[in-house]
## 1
Amino acid sequence: MDPRASGFWVRLKANRPAYTLTILATLTLGILIGTVISKGVRGQESKKGAESAAPLTVPSPQQLSNQFSQISKQLEPSVVNINTESTIKNPHRRRGVPDQGGGDDQNPFDDFFDRFFGGQGGQQGPIRERSLGSGVIVDAKGYIVTNRHVVEKADRIRVKLQDDPPGVLHDARVVGSDQETDLAVIKIESDKAFPVAKLGNSDSMQVGDWVLAVGSPFGLQETVTAGIVSAKGRNIVPNRQFQSFIQTDAAINPGNSGGPLVNMAGEVIGINTAILTDTNAYAGVGFALPSNTVVSVYNQLIGPDHRVARGSIGIEFAAQENPAIARVYGVSGGVTVANVIAGTPAEQAGLKVGDTIISVDGKSVKNGDELVADIASRKPGTKVDLGFIRNGKKQEANVTVSDRAKLFAARLGEDDEAGQESAPKESKLGLTVHAITSEMADRLDIPADKGVIVQDVRAGSFADDIGVARGDVILEVNKQPVNSEAEFNRVASTLKSGQDVVFLVRQRGGGRQGGTIFLAGTLP
């Protein structure tokens, strides 16, 4: 050791305070150097480990849902909640029990409509029913499009708007309704203009396009659900040629009926009408009437007659195209006539069963839908030139288009919307009957010379109270056969207040062999 250094330490030790401070300073310096070196090493190791992983980010909510929310805000003010009140007498009454098998002989047609539009439960006796539905304002003056089944037979209709205070409802009146398409127009009054929805062209929609359904499912106002167009041109109700639906998987539930189906431009391209379900709730399949149909019906309902007039020539044909028919009749397209109704323009023009209609006024028709759409769009009284093939030869016939409602008014399940001069009168029993034509008998599989068919039953009448329903065939009244309108009216005219009345009735759908029951009561 250097003697000078040794002397330094000897002198430092002699001065203890200085010696102690020197030792502490040395230790502190060493600790600091070690800490810095350690952190540097750990930082380098951490940096090497993170080089292969990218940091995560949270996307903006607006990027995910902005389009749906903008459409909802734009449309919701024009979508309304519809409240209806009506008196229902003896809903789902047990109308008789079959001889064998037991159980309630509920009509299969009722089962079908329950499946699409929902049932009413199993209450007995008169009740005051309140129902909910939806609608969409299409005119600033308060004109609203909804479903006919939402407002049908309602004693009172009230409408709630989105911006209305709680408890505020607008009384509405029915402007017009159309049974064929299940559409109705109602109107509310106000001094101010109402928010209006914009209608789009339903023909532009393609399978797979996004859509929104807006309405009041289960009374929950301003509900929006999203889905896609699942299919187009769906026909779900038998004998309803003018109901061709857009199918969607956007959630539609009871209360949505009458509300709009909307495209991504915020345009109404359909009116939500029905669901396919076994539980009366959403099962992934809903149906909306296309806006192009809605516009056509609406424009006629707001007209002076407040009804839809459709043309018809009085023929029938197979609802589904069948290549075998074309092969047997030797044609490659068109509509082969299966029936020409007596007394109609088609019969008067000389059309026959087996003729295949191939054109209307020179424009070719490929199938029944095209033919119906063309003829139905024409005003009654106009004339058309039909091109058809008979026994392999092309021919033409000039046909005068008639009013479809008048041609088919007597048929079961269709209203006499036009009001015929020869319409049967309602009896004191509260029902009107019609003679059974051979055509009705064949269609319903019942004898043509037995009984009269019930055409209408007035709500709250004696007939309604004891359970007589439209489509029933009355065979006897108080043991007296009634095989014509005249016989029924003669017997009915002899009945007096306080007298017991017993109908022997073959229920709708009972066929030739059975389904007859007694319906009875005391005439008030």
Note: The chain has four domains: 3-38, 76-308, 311-406, 431-522.
## 2
Amino acid sequence: MINVTTPRALILLLLASSACAGGAAPSGAFSPTFPDNRSEDVAGVLTRLSAANAPSPRVAVGLTSTPSLYAYDLEAGRELWSVPVGAPVSAPMLAGELVLLHEPEGVVARGLRDGRTRFTIPDSAMHLVGADGEGALSVFVLSTGAGVGARSEVVVADAGSITWRRSYEQALGSPALAGGLIFLPWATQNLSVLDGRTGDELARLRSTDAVVSEARRLGGRVYYGRSGFFLLDAEAVSGSRESAHFASPNVGDLPGSPALDPDPYRPSPSATSAVHKIRLAWRPSAAGTGLEDSLAYFVFYRLIFALEAEGGALRWVSSLPADALDSVASEGGLWVATADGSVRFFDASDGREHSPQETGHAVVAMTLPRDASPPPGRGEGEVRPLAEQLLVAAQNTDARLVPARSLAVSRLASLEQPAATESLLALCDDRRLPPPVRAAACEGLAARDNGAEFILAALRRHANFLDQTEPPPVGPLARAAANMHQTEAVVLLLGQLRDPATPASDLAGLALALAELGERSAAEPLLDFLRMYHADAPDEPTRAGLAAAASAVVRLLGSASQEELSALADDPLCQPAVALAIRESLSSLDTPATETTDDAATTDDAADPAPEASQTPQLPAHVTTSMVSRVLAPVQAQLLACLSADSTHPASARLVIVLEGDGAVRMFSTTPASLQRCIEPLVRAQTFPGNRSDSRQQVTYTLRRAR
């Protein structure tokens, strides 16, 4: 036998070569017996972390459609390099002095300063989860994602060369690197702290009530979590949000369910995925219990909403010239990279934009440094009123933005200033808008209780072919005028009633507003309208308008309307649906008589009980708004409390209740939608009357705070 002794240096060289060539990584696992949330372990980590404050290079990387990858120095304002790349599998990532891009052959690591390839790692059917770097030290994670048979790999490099790799039989999250330590999330609730040089586990933290999928190094501190972030400090050993320093935004539901970053436990989105364009960008404060500048930034393609971290009140909204591809919250504002290759910064206080840096490339993906400091100075330009900012956002012509444009309209409707009424009117009056956006604006306009001058001015306008003017949105305007008790609007509304150009869909709202305004002088014009069209109602909106007109006449004239309306209902030429609606309106006149009879039952004449059938209350022909008001009276104070508790502080809410024939609530919705969770249980707990025809019907009720 020949004994061959291989020099130790040669063995190390062979191992390194195998790693660089994509050889199998040594297997590793997190020991089930390693103690978690141990104070002394965390104290040692914090000691090492206190010496770490290496700033991230202020370099952005972009990916063009050709495809090519380039780096741009934000500090110097110049391009560092550009190289052709293979078809990208995901967006590029920054890892200290390395740029990582998942390409068909695997994850390619290039130098941040020169773009030269340092090494390539085969992906082994895993996706690139996340990466970070501190100085020359870099770390990145590959994973299959969570689920049965999950597997992952950690790769660590120093000065552009792999120092160690380790595979795990768990789903790993996105890592952070600080003080030579690797902070590695795994299995949705754990954070292990590894020595960056050896891979040894030094400490472990386990969250008991929050998902852990990402770690971040920000300003020399480390945070970890998912929808909310723990500050890694001595209190983190509690594992609980209540006892630790924990920060998360509370801004309510937003379109697209935006997150801070893509979920590392799911397959990585492609470089061009909409996930990168719909984000909720925020940064934990230094104290770890709130958000930097008390703001979270909702980015939806080309719109940015700056929302108060507690409650979601809107501070400002801004529009972008191109799609947002990456968004990073910083101290004092928001960094945004856009598809035209620009890098922009918006001040937290008022949304003013600094002069953008133009990288000179149109891009499909761009990645910004996660801990970039804000540019010097203040943003430029005039700060427009919030109502005007929201109007501009709602009028954006990009069809992809409809959910965010509708959000802008709902926030506009929540503003108390009369200028908001003017903006809502402009949107409701624009028939070119997508139906959801225009409908939201019209609903908001109908609920307004200020800005009467704009309402009256709009009602004075009539369609004119020569002047190329169209009729105003009469229905919402009429409801708003009634909300404001503007009796001056009665003459204007009657003018719109007589105008053949008034859309049939607006007639019902117009008639009901006249009834609510209570001017008896409106009764005769309404009767004229019924006389003219009771035999000629070509569509459902016109029939609904005639029914509302009949109801309005009864409310205005009471029993004095009975003879005239009965004659119209009995006219052989009267359309059956219209005749039925008139008779149903007249049936409400029977209510006072019934009440009088009930009162008389207390006299001696009531000694003999009436037949049992006569004691059963007669069902109404249909459930009216006034009936709904009586049903909800016992919970009125609680309903108004829901308005006050909503973060947007709406002045009113529109409740749409769909009732079955027996009075059971089939469906329920509110505008704004944010109130539904509070209001719906209160409404469903009440007992509503049925109707004589045992048919389903929809009732609209407006809940309004006292002025």
Note: The longest strand covers residues 127-134.
## 3
Amino acid sequence: MALIYLSCAWLAGIFLGGWLEFSPPPIILLTGLIPLLLVLRLRHRKKAIILVGLCLVAFLGGVIRFEASQPAIDENQLCFYNNQETVTVKGIVGADPDVRDKTTQIRLSVEGVRSGEKWHKVSGTALLFVPRYPAYKYGDVLLITGKLETPLPVNDFDYRSYLAHQGVYSLMSYPEIEILAREKGLKPLARVYSIRNRMSQTLIQVLPEPQASMAQAVTLGIRGNIPLSIKDDFSRTSTTHLLAISGLHLSILAGVLLGAGIWLWGRRYYLYIWLALVAIWFYTLISGMHPPIVRAAIMASLFLAADIIGRQRSAIIALTFAAAIMVAIEPQIMWTASFQMSFAAMSGLILIAPFLQTLGRKAIRATMGEDRPIVTAANFISDGVSISLGAIIGVGPLIAYYFGIVSFVTIPATLLALPALPGAITGSAISGVLGFFVLPVAQVIGWLTWLFLSYLLLVIRAFAAIPLSSLDISLNLSAVWIYYLALALAIFFSSNRRKVTTLAVKFLKPGQDRDEQVI
């Protein structure tokens, strides 16, 4: 539990630092020592006092960390040159380009800007919008000439804040580009991106559209090629999580690898765990390092490490620690929609779904008994509904807030589509890898994968076609906060019913005694 408190204190500090935008001096961390003065008087509370001091240090450290992550707007920062005349900048493509139907988005890590005949060293990331062809790769050194612009709101969407939370403060649309050098990035990362691109091309070869683009999404995290009509269907049914790589996809991969490792080597030397760990982080790299998959990778690593050291697992500890690590690396990620929805959904699975499963099983036992064969099937369906409902309760308000939509068919659509996901993921991955060596065999696997992907698409399209399957809604931020505060209180009182009842009885008992004395 101590790790939960420390992680939450750190997250609260990051949030407060971003909200209030104040910068305390680092020496303020010494205030964490103040509670230690009470140790001599309250020795029986020594552990609690030390924990309070550490939480205070973590909280203040989070505030300081956020402020340290903010760029100083001066001539050494790229955004200083926004909205001026045409400028020339030099930089390196810092990530795998995001290739869409007609355009490509490139994140350029800028190293210098030219003013007149002189070059000035600067730092910052520019988001470039360029034609799909010619193609660019990670590690390309580019000379760019164009106009840097500050991101502006798009309709009601705060695009500027969205990009700022990813460390991007400058845009440039369709600039003049000159390639100065290639393959100047980190060699291991360049190799990973090369494998990712080759797998993507293989999937295009062995599968027709739109199944090929869906396979790229569920396996590699490449969703830019999915037709807009299909994206709308997944959005209206609130089943986009089936395409977006997340903990669900990673759990399927980890389960397959653990089973294969145990079959090959047994449980000796924990080789099956090391195989899963290596594969999990490699998969995280080739899928684009998106927040949901990073969170899932950290959680899975903590679970597997717990097996090695023989410690008890705790999903909520792993979740909060994963959040603390991610926010420590990049504080701005706390304000991204994908990060928030990923953790909200996982919190619902951990804190709400088990309670719903228990209620569902009790209801089934009360109505059907325990020994009838149909009970097993009923429990399976009930558990599936509980898991889906738990995730929806956790993430629903954020979906409504960010996307302005509420779906009424999410649970049945997810339940019917979910059985096809393991086959779609594993089939796509195997096809993509085999395509490196024996393309005909990859095509055979692709035929089987097509069946799973087609079934998945059929289910989503069928539910999206139902009249009134979704409702457009406008939800403000205050309503979201009120919802989660009420939900947190409900979870707390539900988990501590006995303690709350005992305290209530103790509180009411003195009044009862006085009433009895008066009588």
Note: The domain at 78-185 is CATH 2.40.50.140 (OB fold (Dihydrolipoamide Acetyltransferase, E2P)).
